[in-house]
Amino acid sequence: MTQEKTRFLAYICPKCRQSVIVEREVFALAAAPAKIKCPCGKSELEVEFMPQRVRLEVPCVACGRSHTVSCPSHAFLREPALAFSCKESGLDCCYVGEEGPVYAATARLEQAVDKLDDPEDREDGEQRPFLDELVMHEVLSEIKDIAARGGISCACGSKAWTFRLGYSSIELICAQCGAEMRIPAATADDIDDICCKTSLLIRGKE
Ligand SMILES: [Zn+2]
Ligand SMILES: [Zn+2]
Ligand SMILES: [Zn+2]
Fold it and tell me: Which one of the ligands is nearest to 157 CA?
């Protein structure tokens, strides 16, 4: 059984929009609830070990609220990179894992966050339907290409599917069992990722 001695945790501060990435000893995290503060002092990530699970309270840069998420302790301790996402925007809000993957994922999230509307631009309370309309369009047409070649299927065996457009992602939904799969559609990297795929397998919920 191998287990990392430390974990990297990352989020982007909703107040000042800088990335907060810290390394913490697993031992210390398990011993007591931890609060990881942004240097600006206006937001903090909370981590708490429960029996069998780890609970996180994450300030979300995409929607401005905070999200309570959790995962099994063994995943928290061993996965190279865990991503937690904002249900409302479809964007990720927190990463936990090894140094390299966590830094890479955070850099990518920064690109998506750069496209978020400034709060000042949102005076009329209206939000654009998509984070990036061009990316959404490209990713959707790639999905349709894959579908046209019969490349979309579900772990339950079904090949019937439908989709729902989110703010920065597309949900593929199995028409038979209802399992969902999120395809990110926020940045140019997301277009590159889907372009090199020839098939998509909906695996259902974890
Ligand atoms: Zn901050
Ligand atoms: Zn959110
Ligand atoms: Zn299915």
Answer: 3
